[in-house]
Structure formats: structure tokens, C-alpha cells
Give the backbone structure.
Amino acid sequence: MQTLNNSYRFQGFINTPNLWENDEVYGLPQFHIEPSGKPYKHTYNKPLRLGKLVERFLIHELQQRSHISIISENHQVQDGTLTLGELDCLLLLKNIPIHLEIVYKFYLYDASVGTTILDHWIGPNRRDSLVKKLNKLKEKQLPLLHHPITKSWVKSLGYHSEKFGQLVCFKAQLFLPYADKDIDITPLNQTCIQGYYLTPSQLSEFKDCKFYIPKKLDWLMDIPIHIDWLTFEAFRIKLNEFLAEKSAPLCWVKRPNGETLKLFVVWW
């Protein structure tokens, strides 16, 4: 099942658009790659965290390109026993050295947070935000390439940090409030909108539907057809276990007509 899931997760990753085009957000230029069409068949002795799994997915795609060669993956920059950070990937793109940072996120639109369109995107449990991640990329992750310790290590590989271009591959699934779906999210990519979020009190509209609560790694996936759907009543019991722990799960919903959609049910 792990191999099957990783195959579906990989396809979900491939199908997820970049969160913006070019360098329209924070001046961060996006890395674009067309799908190779080669399936992902790797397995692991234990499940990877979602962030690490998507890194493996993108590295797999990079390895299919003859014009790309990978210099380094997931290099931790150490100052003695202190970890300063990690460089996701150094590569040669048509012989041009590139530092690539890889991000995959799930954000919900909450107009009560901040004052700009970028401010409004938060994590399902309100502990994360798009702006926080963008600032981390801009102020910490990308500048790490030019830290003296990193520069020395890069030089040992036969390169110079100053010669590297820097790109991000920032993919995301976005979710709008169920009661307010007509929102212009410019400069973000409208095709990243994958569903909606609602509160438990709004669920009555779906009492005739079937439900499934995927585990975190399966959030990457497009909704499969053949799964063990729950009735509304069974789903509410399972849902309450998440909400009691202040955890907002992603839910797959199947309407009586067979239409499917993704919903987060939030505790807040």
C-alpha cells in the first residue's frame, strides 16, 4: 500500500500548480518543470514527513532531465554542533548553478488576519502562515547560501556561492471559506484553489454525503474513487476526535451524484 500511496501522492504533487508565476511574490522567482511522465516507485522503511516526501518527488523529476545535474541534496549547514539550516538542492541547469528551495503548503483564506491578500493565508490550525514562510525564505533560507560556512563548503565542491542563481518551487493547495467563494487572490495562482473550509455547524448541508478523512501524507493526493467512504454519522464521530484536539482535518466528500470535493473542517 505504501508504494501505491506514494504513486498517488506523487501524481497529486505533480498536479499541484506553483503558487505564483515568475517572481510576482516577494520577488522570489519560481522554478517551473514540466512532468516527465515517469512514475514514482520508491518505497521507504518508514513514512517521511510531508515536506521531505515532496522534496523526494521533485528530486525524482529533476533526475529525469538530461539538462539538469544535481550537485547536492538536503545539505545541513553546521556551525559546530549548531545547525544553521539546510539547503534543499544545488543543481546545474544547462550548466548554470542554481540553489533551489522546495515548499509545499496548505493554506486557508481568513480575511480577519492582516490587511493584504498575502496576510490572509494561514495554516489549517492557525500556527502557520504564507507571509511567515515567505519571510523565512527571503531572510533565512535563501541567504544561507552566502553564509561563510556555506561558502566554504560550496567552494570545496568546486563552485562559488556568488555564481548561483536562486529559485523556489513553491506549490500549494488553497482553500476558501465555504460561505464566500468569490475571492480574487491575485497575485496568487487561482488554479491553486482546491476546495473550501467550514465550521462543524455548517456541515448539515452535507448530511446526505459520504466522507473520508485522509492521513496527512495523503493530503497531497487527488481524491481516489475507490475508498471506504464513511456515512455522515460515522464521519461526525471521527471528526469530533480531531476537533477535540484542536486539529483541523482535511476531508474528502462525495455527494450523492458522485461529485467529490475537498473540505477542511476547522475547530476555530
In short: The two ends are 34 Å apart (CA to CA). Strands lie at 68-79, 82-93, 96-109, 121-122, 165-177, 193-198, 210-212, 250-254, 260-265. DSSP finds five helices and nine strands in the chain.
